[in-house]
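ok so I'm stuck.
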Amino acid sequence: MINEFYAIFGQIIIILLLLFIALLLFSLFLGRVAIKNDKFIFPKLVLFTTDLFYGPFKKLSENMGFDSTLVDHISVEVRNKVNSNKFKSIDNNDKIIVLPHCLRNPNCPATLERSGLECILCNKCVIGNIKEKAEELGYSVFIIPGSTFIKSIAERKKFKAVLGVACYQDLNLAMMNLGKFYPQGVPLSRDGCYRTKVDLKAVYEIMGVCDDN
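replied:
not stuck anymore, here's the structure
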């Protein structure tokens, strides 16, 4: 009797494990389709899987030979699509933009304050361009040296939506943690924590700026 119980229990575990792997593979397939063809099928299922099983999902993806940032890439793109309309509907005065300090010029004269770097618009990097344009539209801009500053900003600044710029992994994790603020994200076009770059046009597009230059 006991042996039969353990045999049935083992079979159930194997079935659940196979179903779990199948769910991850299905979500991975949907995510890759979304990125490649801009077709978002069952986006909430993809986000549910990538959020709830983030660690195992990344491990499975890497074991299959995919880039280590694929899961983060999928999650960011799908979340952008899911939140896009709501983000646009919120007044700019209730939005913030969070930029990484690694975008700044090595000779940046900005000082570090409680809310992050205080950009003085020295025109040595794209941070000044984004800050100037964003504040004209009503956004609040924060340049932070680490993710711990996000918690401080959320505690002291009232906002309803957020646009972030970072490498794929940091961006994905931040968007997961700020899910209630309808986050939009733009990944760095060159990361590495030093002299990084971002597609300015992509940032402006989400901000709602029409600028052919």
